[in-house]
Structure formats: C-alpha cells, structure tokens
Amino acid sequence: MNGVTDMAQASVRPGHAAPRPSLSTSDVMALVVGVVIGAGIFSVPSVVAANSGGAGALMLAWVLGGVLSLAGALCYAELATSYPHSGGEYHFLKLAFGNKVAFLFAWARLTVIPTGSIALLGFVFGDYAAQVLPIMGAWSSGLYAALAVVMLTAINVAGLKSGRRTQNLLTLLQVGGVVAIVAAGLALPIASGALQAAAATGDTHWGLVLIFVMLAYGGWNEAAYISAEVVGANRNLPRALVLSIAAITGLYLLMNLAYLRVLGLPDMAASSAVAADMMGSVLGGRGAQVISAIVAVAALTSMNATVLMAARTTYAFGRAAPMFAPLGRWDPRLDSPVHALLVQGAIALALVGLGTATRHGFTTMVEYTAPVFWLFFLLTGVALFVLRARSGPGAHRPFSVPLYPLTPLVFCTMAAYLLYASVRHTGTGALVGLAVLGLGGLVLLIGGDRAVPRGGAGLEKPVESDAHDQGEP
Q: Which domains occur in the chain, in start order?
C-alpha cells in the first residue's frame, strides 16, 4: 500500500486523523528558506574567509555549497514525490533498509537531530536577544532559549495555520533584514585596500571550507517531512526546493560580496562577528544593535520552521511503533500532532539546560548533532539507489533526479566526507550524541516488536498519481 493510500485510509478510520494537503509552493519555500537562512550566514563567512586563498575561492565555495545542496534536494524530491509521507526520511529508510534502521532514525530525530537543532538555534536567539535586552546577566541566553522553545511549541500546537502564518511573517522579516544588509554593504564605496586584499591569492583549505559552507546551507531536507501536506506535491515540492536553494545561494553570494566590499578578506577572516562589523561600518554605534535584532529574528525563524516540520517525523514514528503510540495522535481540530510537539519541546528544553550548564551552549549543540545528522543523510542517499534498484528502471516516478546516478553519487560522497569530518573535528558533544543514538539501540533491543514500526519492510510502489495534484490554493 503506498503512502498516499495509507494516509487516506487512516484519515477515515475512527480515531485516526491524518495530515491533508494544504501547503502551497510559497508556503514550502518560506519554510525551507526560514530553516536554512539561520545564524550561519552571520558567522560562518569569517571562518570560510580565513581558510580561503582569495575572494575568488571564497565565492566559489559558496557556489559549490549551493550546487551540492541542489544535488541533495533533487534526490530528496524524487524520494518525497515517489513515496510521499509525513515521516520523510524515516519513511524512505524504512522502505530501503527495514524497521530497525527506521527506528534508529526516528529515535535520532526524537532525541538528537532536530531537538538539538532547536536548542542550538535557541542559544543563537538568546545570545543576540541578550545583546538588545539583557535580562539575567550571564544566564540571559539560556533563559531566552528556553522561552523561545516554549513559545514556538505553543504556537505550533495551536495548529498548522498558526505555525505557517508565523513562519511566513518571520521569513519575510528575516529575508528583509538580509536584503537590508546586502543593500547597505553594496551601496558603500569600496573600503581602502579592500579590493587588493580581496584579490590576494594563497592556499585554500577546501575540506574545512566546505564543512562550514554546508553548515550554513543545512536544513533544506526538512521539506521531506511535509511532502504529504503539499498541494500538488509532484510538481510543487521539487519546484519549491529548487527555487528555495537558488534564492538562498543568491542571497549568500550577495552577502559575502557585501562583506568583501566593506571589510576586505583579511578583516573578514579576523572578525568574530562579520555581519556586525560590516554594519558597524555602515551605521556606527547603532550597527551592533541592528545586526543583533536581525540575527535574533533569523534564528527564531529557523527555529519555528524546525519545530513545525520535525514533529511530523515523531508523529509518523508514533503511528507505526506501538511503544510510542501516544506520539502518533493527530488532533483534527487543531490540525497538528500535539503530543509529538509537546515531547519534542520537552527534550529541546532539556538540551537547553545541558547547554546552559556547560556555558558553551551553541558549540555543545553543534557537536551533539553533527555526526548523527550526517550518518543518516548518507543512508538516505544510499536509500535512493536501493529503492531505484528494487522498483526497476521502468517504474513510474512523478519526479526523477536528473543525471542519475551521478547526482546522488555526488550527494553521498559529500555526506560521507562530512560524517568523517564531524567526528574528527568535534569533541565531547559528538560522543554524547553518538551515545544517545546507541541508547536507541538498547531501547530497540529491550522493546522488541513493540519498538519497531508495524508492518513489513517491503518496498511500497511509487505513487502513480497525486490525488491532490490540482495546483495551489
């Protein structure tokens, strides 16, 4: 039984409400852009500049980041349109590798990947909100992070309409802030010596550069979790992913060009807050306050999108695994997975507490999430090869990844390298994240059949048509 049929039947069974298509292309774009353009573009460029041999290499790195992200997005578009399901990668991994791998991924989604990202973004929001309005001295960041988790969880519990309206507004403010930074940077005369400094050549450490560039591009894969809620998903989901990544790449290139014009490459590399330094040059003493407000909104935007989409995997997990059945309840009145959102929020709050206790909240959460994230990214890329082989070359696919098998091979190679790098270059947080994943294996061993998803692990047929492919509302 394919994912569409399964959800259609679930929606008519007593007590089993299910998500229904209601998101347009613009809604999906707002979610993807909101997730990706977080705090990374305000901090990562200085690290990239420090490891780039010149302005050309720096700009090329950001182009490559867009190309690699596009390769991954095209792979996800095929999987999401052929096997639409609110579980996203959880569903793809179940079809390709079976129930046990699907369980471990769902466990990672519940305890490590999005919950860690929510806490991470909470700390970014807290750090910059505290610059505008400190409330408890050294504890301001952690308190702001906790308040953001509670507020955004409550908004999304109130329903999809509330969550997406909040997301669209925040994304508008976020992109408006980025455009304002770009306009300010490009409108200035080129700083003395900036062109010469930007044109300097030297060695580029491509491995390290791409690790940080891909960190700034991370998050577009979250669109897979709303594939069942997109109107006309066969056409609109791939279009939204491609347009979103193209827009993000364009904004990133313009921001880095603005940084180069105002600061030059050496000052970019030496800066600990490159956007704040650039805006300080534009607005003087007000620059730090302006950029702090913009970064706080950007972090809150990404955070809300992650809260909204990540709960969909937890919902699908609860629907399939008897041990976690309460997580799989969809509230038809609010049109949201209330229990999944509440549990997700509680875990994110616990991680905020952990990060606050270490006094290195952002860094601890990056280390905590990275290895587990890239492990399952790699497995999802491999799943595309597995499902293609099982379904056969003549199977109908609503969307086929271009240049197969080259495109998914590029994606898998990138994921494998970044998995290696995330283990090699991170510290205690990575070990804790991997230990929590290992705890999921113990739960699987103890829970037995009650822990794994119900039903067989056989391949579900790709959908022949999209029953809701009638265009956008």
A: 20-394+401-450 (1.20.1740.10)
